[in-house]
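Lab meeting, item 3. Inverse folding demo.
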């Protein structure tokens, strides 16, 4: 499946020339089911565009932890949208 990177809309007051490479919406994949090749592509896109948007994404606590670890292998905890931090090996609440 081909990954699409679509520029994010800017407010009318923003200077588009200063945000030409900033932010992309990602389409064409599921963030919780990335192959190693897809992850590399997403990682490169993040470093190029500084922010990525995955609309309507649902991740299990285990998928969120795996994605966090993929970006930061030394990470031992992560947040899962409930203001609680989950250490490695524990399921989110």
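The presenter then showed the designed sequence:
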């Amino acid at each position: 499946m081909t990954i699409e990177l679509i520029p994010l809309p800017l407010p009318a007051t923003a200077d588009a020339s200063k945000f030409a490479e900033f932010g992309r919406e990602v389409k064409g994949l599921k963030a919780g089911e990335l192959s190693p090749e897809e992850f590399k592509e997403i990682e490169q896109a993040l470093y190029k565009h500084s922010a990525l948007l995955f609309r309507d994404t649902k991740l299990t606590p285990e998928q969120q932890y795996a994605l966090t670890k993929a970006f930061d292998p030394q990470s031992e905890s992560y947040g899962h949208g409930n203001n609680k931090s989950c250490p490695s090996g524990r399921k989110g609440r």
